[in-house]
Amino acid sequence: MATTKVVRIPPAPESSALSSKAENISYPRWFGGSASCVAVIVSHPFDLIKVRMQTVSNGTKQSTIITGMRILQGEGAKGFYHVTYGTSRIALYEEMKQSAKKSNQPLSTPILGIMAASSGFIGAIFGTPADIANVRMQNDASLPQQQRRNYRNVLDAWVQMKRTEGWRSFRQGLWPNCFRSGIMTASQLASYDSFKRLIHKLCDTDEERPLIHFAASLLASLVATSISSPMDVIRTQLMSSSNKTSVFEVVRNLMHVEGPRWVFRGWTPSFVRLGPQTIATLVLLEQHKKIYRMLNS
Asked: Taking the CA of residue 131 as centre, how many other CA atoms within 13 Å lie in the half-sphere pointing to its CB?
């Protein structure tokens, strides 16, 4: 008697279906700003230490721990927290990605890099005035008493900058800051998407797991810190000074005083700051998206 063999076709993996559905969802653009604002609470103390190390005079070598202890001793815990600005770079980047997906354009790593660099560059144009005030407020306590500006907050900083230096002070270090932000955003966001794609492939899964987000954001922070470090040092030097100077003059002075090692001045606190910030921002962003998908499923 002949037997009939029944062939069962396995259902498509649920994770693939969820991933495909997630690709077609248009998320609110404020998710990136919300995630960044929460992440800055974690990273800001290390950002303050980094600025102090990058603006120390005469190339004096100063460790992260010593810098942090001096801030605590001289200013108390509140010295770590100064007003900083939010950024629109993630929202712009997400908008560009969604537009590309809708037009069925392939999102290769170079394309992601161009999108991220453009969003970082544009975001820095609007954020530079607040960034200048932030850098000056962070660096103020490291200056001699007679040279301190004693800004009370960002608004007070802007008023004093306009009164004593004119409108040019609001664009001091603008282009280095824009290029630095473009480079950092490309090496941070584009590399995150590329690393996440690679980890998904290595793990043979499309499922969005927090551990994958953590690993990809950690790798992205290593890339971002190393690539953006030189521009970050130049930007900090330009913004912290009230004197009109050029990028060439800053680099020449740094090379004369320290040699090539200036390129990685403050790298450790930059990574300690950028690592938690990148991880917190991108993991929180992914959680924003996850909750949004659940609410709209």
From this structure: 26
